[in-house]
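Incident log, support desk, overnight shift.

02:14 A customer reports that sequence design results differ from what the structure should imply. Their input is reproduced verbatim below. On-call engineer (initials T.W.) acknowledged and began investigating.
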């Protein structure tokens, strides 16, 4: 870092994204992207929007919000669109946490939560998962802080039920509970309907995974209109034009083609179950994933060895070089063709590691 870098960030450890190598053509199963292209309507709308890039994008995202409000059965003042769900999560840290209101989240979860807390100078508490990587909901009752829970969780893929999340919400009436539903469309139940019942619930989602717009960077939050007003205060104090015109147009087209996206999710779920079966036959054990990835370890081969050997063979998976996770790899579920290649290459790797 330079000698000009502020001391307040001297200990900041930035989030590490999954590898995006350009030197080799890999089968990318490491960053939970969709194997499917954006919908045709999304592509068409984005192309049309490119003709007017000399103009600012609509800061209110009016057309997008109208469609999304109808899709999720909420009022238009109960939804906010952002530059990926990372932005709405950061807004939530800024709006609902401070030195007297810490952030509370699991010790094994989306790695950005720690970064958001640190960069905003917010105290935080990490609660250990159970030995089986599940969340103990009793640990979050009467928590005296703003709670952040990814559901399904990452990198484990394990989901809480709506009833379990509601218990957490009810026990924290004076603090916001943020449920990050980045992977909810792959087998978990959304708690968006509970936003009508509880004024302290904020639900975040993304178009990156289930709607094939990872490169578009589009996310949103749903909650009580006063919570959304708070988040808009942060938005209009930082970047009013946070969603660009191309992404906004692609988002509109995506919602118009919602059936296409949900059908793709069903295919990914089918591919996940097929992959789980094949991996079990090869000696792997996995958490019960409700996401577009599996979290797997082999009974004899080390996780890092499998990761490195697969990379040599042109297949990227995600390895977390962290305590409790050493034995595991997170494997994104791609197309059936990609998963067939994965299984073929894993068989080769296991033979080489004997």
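02:41 Re-run completed on a clean worker. Output:
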């Amino acid at each position: 870092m330079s000698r000009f870098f502020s001391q307040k960030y001297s200990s900041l450890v930035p989030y590490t994204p999954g590898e995006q190598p350009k030197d080799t053509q890999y089968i990318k199963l490491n960053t939970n992207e969709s194997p499917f292209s954006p919908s045709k309507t999304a592509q068409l709308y984005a192309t049309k929007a490119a003709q007017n890039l000399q103009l600012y994008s609509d800061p209110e995202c009016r057309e997008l919000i109208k469609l999304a409000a109808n899709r999720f059965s909420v009022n238009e003042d109960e939804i906010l669109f952002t530059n990926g769900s990372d932005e709405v999560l950061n807004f939530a840290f800024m709006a609902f946490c401070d030195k007297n209101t810490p952030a509370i989240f699991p010790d094994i979860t989306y790695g950005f939560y720690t970064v958001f807390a640190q960069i905003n100078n917010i105290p935080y508490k990490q609660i250990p998962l159970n030995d089986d990587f599940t969340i103990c909901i009793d640990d979050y009752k009467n928590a005296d802080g703003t709670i952040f829970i990814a559901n399904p969780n990452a990198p484990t893929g394990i989901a809480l039920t709506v009833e379990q999340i509601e218990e957490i919400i009810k026990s924290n009436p004076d603090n916001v509970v943020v449920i990050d539903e980045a992977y909810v469309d792959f087998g978990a139940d959304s708690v968006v309907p509970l936003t009508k019942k509880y004024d302290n619930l904020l639900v975040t989602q993304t178009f990156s995974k289930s709607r094939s717009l990872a490169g578009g960077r589009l996310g949103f939050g749903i909650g009580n209109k006063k919570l959304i007003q708070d988040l808009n205060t942060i938005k209009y104090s930082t970047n009013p034009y946070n969603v660009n015109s191309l992404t906004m147009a692609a988002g509109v087209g995506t919602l118009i083609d919602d059936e296409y996206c949900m059908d793709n999710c069903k295919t990914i779920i089918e591919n996940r179950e097929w992959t789980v079966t094949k991996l079990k036959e090869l000696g792997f054990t996995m958490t019960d994933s409700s996401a577009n990835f599996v979290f797997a370890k082999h009974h004899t081969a080390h996780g890092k060895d499998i990761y490195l050997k697969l990379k040599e063979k042109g297949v990227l998976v995600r390895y977390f070089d962290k305590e409790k996770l050493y034995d595991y790899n997170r494997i994104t579920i791609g197309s059936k063709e990609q998963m067939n290649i994965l299984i073929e290459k894993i068989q080769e790797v296991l033979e080489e590691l004997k």
